[in-house]
């Protein structure tokens, strides 16, 4: 039996978390961060004229070129964009992997029913400019795709899967399903808003943040190897105590970018 829906305020907050841009001036570049070379396929995807102007404005804060370069997105890759929201990254993936690649915009059924509307990303999949995009609607934790993937990507949404509106989803199952969906050597990239160290899951609902140590522990427990972190979205000035939509910190949150890899020997 389905649980009662959240209050209207909570629903609107959820919709914003999944689909709305993080506003405000971008955080300063992390101190000591190395310059990252952006491959030609990713650079071309960022400058593609099919992208909405509003998405391009967001690039300065979200650093999609550096993020996709860190993930290793190549032409012909098969990618799942888990909880794609409005499709900001979906569009970039589509052009970066090219016509021989494939992008699965994976929308949990729980989120669609809660919002009571079709996923925003459906419009992208219907656009001939993004013909390699397919939307998958499926109830978590039953993550699955029609073919093995090179990359599973989720941005600012891992904490949501721990929230009550998602069940919460059993992340031990979700992460194992993602492990199965990836090719040997495939990558699982997780971006999220940082909570205070040691806070665990305490702030997933009230602040929309998660302790990065929890993510690392849960994902590696599914068999992944932690390969490293990009610090391109780090913001040391963020005290990690405010809701990510608070005007004092919105658009300037500290975010971790964690890269996990399925061992090449795994099947």
Automatic annotation (TrEMBL):
Q: Which GO biological-process labels does this protein carry?
A: methylation
The UniProt keyword set, sorted, is: Methyltransferase, Signal, Transferase
Gene3D superfamilies in UniProt: Vaccinia Virus protein VP39
Tell me which PROSITE patterns the record gives.
Answer: PROKAR_LIPOPROTEIN
Could you say which residues form the signal peptide? 1-18
Write out the GO MF terms: methyltransferase activity
- For the keyword Methyltransferase, the answer is yes
In terms of superkingdom, the source organism counts as Bacteria
- Give the protein name, as stated in the record: Methyltransferase
* Source organism of the structure: Caulobacter segnis
């Amino acid at each position: 039996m389905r649980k009662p829906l959240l209050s209207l305020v909570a629903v609107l907050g959820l919709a914003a978390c999944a689909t709305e841009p993080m506003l405000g001036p971008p955080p300063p570049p992390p101190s000591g961060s190395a310059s990252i070379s952006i491959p030609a396929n990713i650079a071309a995807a960022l400058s593609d004229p099919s992208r909405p102007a509003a998405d391009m404005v967001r690039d300065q804060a979200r650093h999609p070129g550096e993020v996709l370069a860190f993930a290793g997105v190549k032409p012909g890759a098969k990618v799942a964009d888990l909880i794609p929201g409005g499709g900001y990254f979906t569009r970039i993936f589509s052009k970066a992997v090219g016509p021989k690649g494939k992008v699965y915009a994976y929308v949990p059924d729980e989120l669609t029913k809660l919002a009571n509307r079709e996923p925003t990303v459906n419009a992208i999949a219907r656009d001939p400019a993004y013909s390699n995009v397919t939307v998958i609607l499926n109830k978590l934790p039953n993550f699955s795709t029609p073919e093995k993937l090179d990359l599973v990507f989720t941005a600012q949404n891992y904490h949501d899967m721990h929230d009550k509106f998602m069940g919460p989803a059993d992340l031990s199952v979700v992460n194992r399903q993602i492990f199965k969906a990836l090719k040997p050597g495939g990558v699982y990239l997780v971006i999220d808003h940082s909570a205070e160290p040691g806070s665990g899951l305490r702030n997933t609902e009230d602040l929309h943040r998660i302790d990065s140590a929890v993510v690392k522990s849960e994902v590696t427990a599914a068999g992944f190897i932690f390969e490293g972190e990009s610090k391109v979205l780090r913001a040391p000035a963020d005290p990690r105590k405010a809701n990510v939509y608070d005007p004092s910190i919105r658009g300037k949150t500290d975010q971790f970018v964690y890269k996990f890899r399925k061992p090449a020997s795994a099947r």
